[in-house]
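Q: I'm writing up a methods section and want to include an example of the input and output format. Could you take the sequence below and give the corresponding predicted structure tokens, formatted cleanly so I can copy it straight into the document?
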Amino acid sequence: MRQLYNMCIMVTKSFFVLLSRTYPYPLQRGIADARLLILAVLFFISSCTTTRNFAIEIREPAKITFPADVSNVVVINNAASPENGDSVIWVSASALTRGIFDEEFFSETMMYLEPVRRDTAYLEIRQIPNDIKQAIYTTTGADAIISIDRFLLKYTQKVNKSVNQMSASYSFVNAKTEVNITYSVYLRGKEKPLTSFVLQDSLFFSSEIIGDSTFLYDILPNALIEETAIYIGEKAVPYFVPTWEKVERKLYTSLEAKMKEAFAYAKANKWTTAKEIWLQLYDRKSNPKTQARLANNIAVAFEMQDDLHKALEWAQKADNAPYISSLTEGIKNHSLLKLQLGN
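A: Here is the clean output for your methods example:
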């Protein structure tokens, strides 16, 4: 923005230098032409508009709505695994538990440290037996169970070995980790799950690596598999609790004194004052593009003051389709979020 500001000032000065050279005696050489040139300069100054992007956090409702009386939850491992292959499930369960805990939505978030199943039929999904559910509720004091019912993970890796110009050997590795998890939610006193869903994703890794066979075929795969387990656990968090998400907003400013003043107030989080200036300017301006930019700024100010309906009204005046969509979604989510937060 500073570079554009300097450029606008430099070009503006050049206009005035040209004006003084062309019309050393405006009264004698054509006042009308001089005025036209001055108007052109002023128009140029007003057109030096810049966009400032900034991030805000908005709270998104959870995809699953728990009953209001659910205060404590426990994450359990109800997935079978191949022989000696369940450690990655615990890694993912731990990441999920930590993510839910960090959102501070439930009074208590726990992880049950005993596996529910002891078999190796990892393709099968089985509901938790009633006696085991009751034992978990009694032991933990949980009102709801978040169960990992199946955990499928596939790791593939291609290694191409080569030698560089310095005669040093290296390997180019292409790896892919695919994961598919089935989750269920149980409520105390209910036999069947409240809901079940599947979450799946893939992670890719490509790099040139200098390392021996132990690193390539043991250390690296295990590290990538663990990273995938953590990633998918964290990705599941928004299903169970409201989360904060970063979204990008933009403000328009220019070299005009009032626009600079309003932007300074917005930057200082004084949105009411900034909005008043933008509203005054909106009423004075007649250029549709300038009004649209001011309407966008006013919409952002209303959003920052949690008045989403007014923000949507001004975003529509700005004809900003992505912003309109975002605000519409936010208004729709607001009622659900209030329900989940007990407001």
